[in-house]
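Q: what sequence does this backbone want?
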């Protein structure tokens, strides 16, 4: 998915679509890496 942070006008959205999602694209969000993903979690009841 591509974030759109450009102009909220027909012209701005048209440029975004015609450029393949490059024009007006939002900044890339850094993906958080969880170090505990491979460790099973213990649920206490």
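A:
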């Amino acid at each position: 998915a591509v974030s759109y942070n450009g102009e909220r006008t027909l012209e701005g959205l048209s440029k975004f679509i015609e450029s393949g999602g490059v024009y007006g694209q939002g900044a890339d969000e850094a993906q958080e890496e969880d170090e505990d993903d491979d460790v099973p979690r213990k649920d206490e009841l």
